[in-house]
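Open question from group meeting: does this chain pack into something compact, or does most of it stay loose? Before anyone orders reagents, we agreed to write out a predicted structure and look at it together. Recording both the input and the output here so the notebook holds the full record.
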Amino acid sequence: MSLIPSFFGNRRSNVFDPFSLDIWDPSEGFPFSSNFPSSAQETTAVANARIDWKETLEAHLFKVDLPGLKKEEVKVEVEDGSVLQISGERRKEQEEKNDKWHRVERSSGKFLRRFRLPENAKLDEVKAAMENGVLTVTVPKEEVKKPEVKAIDISG
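Structure tokens returned:
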């Protein structure tokens, strides 16, 4: 909570609060502002779903933080033969008319992340698992055949 009072009326956050990510909408409160579709007013903060991509000797591992989402709300696909696509949506909570919100920090909206996989990825063996809000996608790698090197004796 900020110690500086808000000068902008009944807002959920303070413009001077460095930890607030709310964006001030200059059209807020005007009669025409309600004409915009709700999807344009929602933030897609889940769009920045945090992903770690680690390569081991056996596979490429993708770990995605998706707290609160069920596996049915997430899609993992391989398209165009080499692009891993992870997508989903966190739905906005229903608001009751008499609810008074003090702070809204959890995000809602759709997300989509794409990664071009290297040539050694076994695309037909991709596996995905969801546990405790973390999606793990495993893309096995083909064994890279090391070129055969033959030593040649030098005469002379």
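Observations to bring back to the group:
The helical segments are 38-41.
The first helix runs from residue 38 to 41.
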